[in-house]
Amino acid sequence: QVQLVESGGGLVQAGGSLRLSCAASGRTFSRYVMGWFRQAPGKEREFVSAINWSGGSTYYADSVKGRFTISRDNAKNTVYLQMNSLKPEDTAVYYCAAEYTTMPSLSRYEYSYWGQGTQVTVSS
């Protein structure tokens, strides 16, 4: 089992950057695939990015491709989401998710463990 705690959200102007972090508990972090999802008010939770256990394979939603970068540091039990060129439509609560498997999924239903979320607000 793993517990996840996100940090790094905040208020930023359009065009700015933020880096989200997700710290995981447990000694088997490297065996989990990790994902980032987001949920805007009145909308369903949507996939943002995912990364496999080694960091060698990464996946992105089309809406963030080229602007966001996911990475992980297994020695620190942490996964990151670097968000650049932020847009007002990126405003949402961002959630970190984990699943004990080898292949990352783009579906929120495939992740068993979730953090509490961190708010990202991008002003125009």
Radius of gyration: 13 Å
- Give the biggest sheet: 7 strands, mixed
Oligomer: single chain
Number of helices: 0
Which class of secondary structure composition applies to the elements?
mainly beta
Give the integer mean of the pLDDT values. 96
Give the beta-strand count: 11
N-to-C series of helices and strands: EEEEEEEEEEE
Describe it for me?
This protein has 124 residues and is mainly β.
Topology:
Elements: E1 4-7, E2 10-13, E3 18-24, E4 33-39, E5 46-51, E6 58-60, E7 68-73, E8 78-83, E9 92-99, E10 113-114, E11 118-123
Parallel strand pairs: 2-11
Antiparallel strand pairs: 1-3, 3-8, 4-5, 4-9, 5-6, 7-8, 9-10, 9-11
Describe, in short, the structure shown.
This protein is an all-beta fold and 124 residues long.
Describe the structure using short key phrases.
four-stranded antiparallel beta sheet; 124 residues; mainly beta; globular
